[in-house]
Amino acid sequence: MAYDPALDMAPELLARAARAAGAGPDLAQGGGGNVSVKTGAERMLVKASGSRLGDLTPARGWALVNYGNIKRRIAAGPGGDAEFSDYIVSQALPVKGMPPARPSIETGFHSLLNTVVIHTHSVYANVLNMSEEGHKLGRELFPNAEFIPYKAPGAQLCAAISERALPAGPQVFFLANHGLVAAHAGVEGALELNAGVNEKIKSGLGLPPFRPAGGDSGLSPANAALLARYGKAFLLSKVLSPDQALYCGPEALDGRCGEAENEVLAALFYILGCIEGLGLTPRFLTGQETAYFESMKGGRYSRK
Ligand SMILES: [Zn+2]
Description:
Blueprint: H1 10-21, E1 34-38, E2 43-47, E3 62-66, H2 67-75, H3 81-90, E4 92-93, H4 107-112, E5 116-120, H5 123-129, H6 134-141, E6 146-148, H7 155-162, E7 171-175, E8 179-184, H8 187-205, H9 221-230, H10 232-237, H11 242-247, H12 250-253, H13 259-277, H14 287-294
Parallel strand pairs: 6-7
Antiparallel strand pairs: 1-2, 1-5, 2-3, 3-4, 5-8, 7-8
Zinc ion (ZN) binds at residues 32, 106, 119, 121, 178-179.
């Protein structure tokens, strides 16, 4: 029988977590970031692939999966990326009154953690995640957090998180060149944990306020000015994150872009500016790491 969202609080809780986590482009840009709520030993509601956190409601923008199976699959060795992604999609369950939705590619690591998981591409956490010295500084600020070296989103990242994942208790992960994960037993706890980490980084490093770029069609004036300063060649050859690889190609930098591309660019410029301001060294992806995304574009992983 299909899951009936009207008979459960979980869709409301998921939407509350998504709204709070996706409230600003400093935490989620474009379709980046995702949230999940587990309802028992096997079922989990998770953001659908391709939708924005801020657009998730109790009635749309999420998928129901059997996370118990996904967890067992990861424990047995997730396999290759294509295979693992197909497996996650195969674990989607029908929901009454909702069209079939594809679970986010990041469903794998959500399956491994506590009841509520909030994953964002926080610009504050990414100052630490995208600099050579950042994880060392992060360990001083957050001695109990886990710091994961860069892994491509998908099977490899899941396997790395699996080694450190706790099924209970609060847990924070810093993912190099990617983002932040906060897991807790309930929505309020997870949101507080997530907000607390961001506040501590801002005050601990003395980061300047983040200014949203705006811009629905074409590059926003702020992004155009910063692009002129860094140069297109720099942005195309020096890649800090999967989001940059997927959103900030030559077309976007030529101005054929919308809100999502402007958000990703503004986040990048903020992170680069903070890294520079703190005297840190940006940690760009290697050629091999960025080549991976060429195969993802327009394919099954496109823009999460
Ligand atoms: Zn992510």
